[in-house]
């Protein structure tokens, strides 16, 4: 996506250079104006931003054309890309100005303009990036992201649980479980709309995630699959969820633990809805979880305060608006505990065994409850073939609802379509 850091700088590039279809979902490009004498200051500013690619313009009115020659800058930024372009001549600019009315400008976001949530999710800032230290950021965002939520004590652990609707809701209870490294905030729109349809909805932050407790490993919680299952069981008792309920699960790691819990407690689940989750033994593991499992490197990775939002944007065709990104990064800014909880959970997860149990457990010979797979087709982590493989193993029980324009977290990218699919299925 294009982030205009300097309002009076402007960019025009032929579509085959940067806006090829395969790059539209993943490109995050920052356009900057700089004077050569201020390059050290500019370098430090670049490294503080969230973008993965940067384009440096040598003057405020630099015009890019296919003939513009990139040159390397003396800036190092890990895996991020830095390019600078020189200006075209005035005659070239004049010729291009005369022809610009002959064809419409390229609009990389045109395919989602009918989606109200996605329209607001595209990041087009009105002002340059904000400066400030961690303390200032925490003060600005500390009260964000707790819609419909309250704290619930379960044994020695304190969960943060979002709740909409009431126990008198006529259509039953829905439990929403998120994946790693995110939180229940992603379900806020879906559960709000589902409660309006007569459902009693709960969405907890798993222990170690979001606003729930994050105990130090070895002191009351060890972040194993069994402990996550046991803690969830106790929470359901506290919430007085007794009769069979509708379970909605999404995502990696703790999301997978939601599915393995369902396999162990099938009598407690009336219907199952799965949003973009790994379902086969061949599911690729995203880079984040691979890095977390590398000794020492994992310790550094888990303390990156913006890792959660990068993971979300990495699997989505959209960039999070700042107010949403604030909520996903808040736990990781507040302390090191969420990062170490994620690290411990990732290290102790046997992903191959977990996915093997999920793949076989939901086959026709083992599972007969209705399953709806709501699948964002723009997911960069998990292709549609994951859902199709599960349906092939249990065609009588499994339905698939494809959502174009949604990525790895369809409940965040396009909640209206997820609600529509849930209402039809339930």
TrEMBL record:
UniProt-listed InterPro entries: AB_hydrolase_1, AB_hydrolase_fold, Carboxylesterase_BioH, Epox_hydrolase-like
GO: which molecular function terms? Answer: catalytic activity
| Basic and acidic residues biased stretches | 93-104
Cite the residue spans of the region called Disordered.
86-108
Domain AB hydrolase-1 stretches: 173-279
Q: Which Gene3D superfamilies match?
A: alpha/beta hydrolase (3.40.50.1820)
- Gene Ontology CC: one annotated term: chloroplast
Tell me the superkingdom of the source. Eukaryota
Region forming the signal peptide: none
What PANTHER family does UniProt report for this protein, alphabetically?
A: HYDROLASE ALPHA/BETA FOLD FAMILY, PEROXISOMAL MEMBRANE PROTEIN LPX1
What protein am I looking at?
Alpha/beta-Hydrolases superfamily protein
- Organism expressing this protein natively: Rhynchospora pubera
